[in-house]
Amino acid sequence: MSDDLGKLADTVLNRAKQAGLTIVTAESCTAGLMCQVLSDAEGASVQFHGGFVTYTKEHKVRALGVSETLLRTQGAVCAAVARQMAAGALEHSSADVSASITGVAGPEPDEDGNPVGRVCIGVARRGSPPRAFEHHYGDIGRDTIREKAVADALNAMADAIAPATASS
Amino acid sequence: MSDDLGKLADTVLNRAKQAGLTIVTAESCTAGLMCQVLSDAEGASVQFHGGFVTYTKEHKVRALGVSETLLRTQGAVCAAVARQMAAGALEHSSADVSASITGVAGPEPDEDGNPVGRVCIGVARRGSPPRAFEHHYGDIGRDTIREKAVADALNAMADAIAPATASS
Fold it and tell me: How many other C-beta atoms can be found within 10 angstroms of the C-beta atom of residue B141?
């Protein structure tokens, strides 16, 4: 695991602590890597509730309440699914802020034809509508795609907790 | 990640495929490592639904339905919590078999005074009562405790799917 991810996790947990907020995650193609990184950062036992690893479409529906119709019509890798995953993680936890990742880490395109490296990241904060961002990393290797996705999700979460200032 | 864990994950997914069963996990101190290992094994996209990472007691209650009273009176690291985590993972998914891990990876004892290296592993199969096993690995380092816990959980899950035979 890269040091950069560790530093990003520290930033997220520091900002959460300062803001008095707790966090939760929802992951598909990264399969728990964001949880691993967050659990190793200082303050995890207080600020970090945990996460939902929803590898199949069925589990996205069962564990997070993602719409079956949406998954059937648009596939699992789209901004709408990322938003619903982030919102679902808040609904099924007592956390204040969530980040979600759904994408194709490879080595093959997914069953809906999404290319390797296409990743959608969602972020939600209680009381505000969830947002999503789409990334196209390209076919740069499974581990690198996963690390980039976690880095982008942690950055989005840090920003949702408190926008960066000169001191943070 | 050790090759041994990868081989164990292959065994679990092979047996699940042979038996036509799907799996799910519930993790506390390992924080998603079991999900990571399973997602890298062949057949994951069909047999492996995902998992619940429940790092705080509150999230064990919210995401898995573990009893608040049990957590308050016995702490998070006991066989009863491991059984409830495994059962809760089945209740909140459509998987057939689950494994759970709750323990103290360290470096410090947990808030209830459980020593580093104490880990309880649960396993459940739909239609049967969940079982649990307690392990005392000792203070052998955070990463090693996590890897041993995942190995023991994968072994328990493989056995719950189909007891070993000469050919498996």
Answer: 15
Query: A35 vs B55: CB contact, 8 Å cut-off?
Result: yes
**Is B93 part of any domain?**
yes
Enclosing domain of residue B122: 3-14+22-161
pTM of the model: 0.95
Q: How many domains does chain A have?
A: 1
**Residue A125 domain flag:** yes
Q: Compute how many other C-beta atoms are within 10 angstroms of the C-beta atom of residue B68.
A: 11
Nearest CA in chain B to A143: B40
**Cβ contact (<8 Å) for B49 and A59?**
yes
Q: What pLDDT, in 10s, does the model give residues B138-151? A: 999 999 999 999 99
| CATH code assigned at B42 | 3.90.950.20
> pLDDT per residue over A73-84, tens digit each?
999 999 999 999
Asked if ipTM goes beyond 0.90, one says yes
On whether residue A167 sits in a domain, the answer given is no
pLDDT in tens, A107-116: 999 999 999 9
On whether any CB of chain B is under 8 Å from the CB of A94, the answer is: yes
Render the burial of A55-70: b for 16+ CB within 10 Å, e for the rest: bbbbbbbbbbebeeeb
Contact A54 B50 (CB under 8 A): yes
Residues of B in contact with A38 (CB under 8 A): 31
Q: Is residue B168 part of a domain?
A: no
